[in-house]
TrEMBL record:
Residues of the signal peptide: none
InterPro entries: DPM1-like, Glyco_trans_2-like, Nucleotide-diphossugar_trans
Similarity comment text for this entry: Belongs to the glycosyltransferase 2 family.
Enzyme class per UniProt: transferase
A Pfam cross-reference name: Glycos_transf_2
High-level lineage: Bacteria, Pseudomonadati, Bacteroidota, Flavobacteriia, Flavobacteriales
Tagged with keyword Ion transport: no
EC annotation from Swiss-Prot or TrEMBL: 2.4.1.-
Domain Glycosyltransferase 2-like: 6-173
Protein name: Polyprenol monophosphomannose synthase
GO BP annotation list: glycolipid biosynthetic process
GO cellular component, one term: membrane
One term of GO molecular function: dolichyl-phosphate beta-D-mannosyltransferase activity
Amino acid sequence: MNDCIVIIPTYNEIENIESIVRAVLSQHKPFHLLIIDDNSPDFTANKVIALQEEFPDRLFLEKRAKKSGLGTAYVHGFKWALERKYNYIFEMDADFSHNPNDLEKLFDACHFGGADLAIGSRYVTGVNVVNWPLSRVLMSYFASVYVKFITGMKIHDATAGFVCYKREVLEKINLNKIKFVGYAFQIEMKYRTYCAKFEITEVPIIFTDRTKGVSKMSNAIIKEAILGVISLRLKKLVNTL
C-alpha cells in the first residue's frame, strides 16, 4: 500500500477539481488522494466519482452532508487516513494556490530530512505570493508575525494550509479536541504539534492565488483566527490545551 495520502477539502470546486486530481495523481511519486466534499451544490463530488473509474485504487471520496468548515473536514480526513495506516498525510487546497509539484518537497523534508511536520511556507525566504492584492499579503504576513509573538513558535507561515504530517503527530494530537474550523485550525494544528515537541520545518514554496472559483475567506474566519491564537496560548499557560 502507498504510504502517502493527500487530503483536499472541497466546496464548489467544479472548475478546479478534475485538473487538481490529475495534477496530484500524475506526480512521479504515486500519491493517493482523498477528497472531502461538503455536499457541493455544483456537484464537485459527482466529478470525483466519475474520475474514480480512471483512478480506482488511488482516488477516494468522503462526501459530508453539509458545509461544516475546513477544520472539521481535515479532522475527518486525518481519522480516515490513520485508520488506513498512511504514514505521511498531506493537506492542500483544490484551487492550485499550492503547486502539486511541491508535494515531493514536503515528503522529502519528512522522510529524509527528519521533520515531523513540513510546512509549505510562503514567508520563510521572503514573501513568495503571486496575484494577491497588497492588502491580502500584508494581512497574511502580519498574521503570522502576530502568531509568532503570541505563541512563541518560530514559524514564519503559521496560517499555511500546504503541509505534510507524519502519522505519529496526528496519533499524538487528540483530534477530538481540535476547536477551530476556519484558518485558525491551521494555527491550532501547528501549535499543538509544537507543544508536543515534534520537529517542524518550513519548505519555501511560491503561493499563487486561485484563478477559478471563489475564495472561502470571510470576516468571521479572520476574527476566529485573531481571537483563537490568544485562546490557545491561555489554554497552554493553564495546562488545558
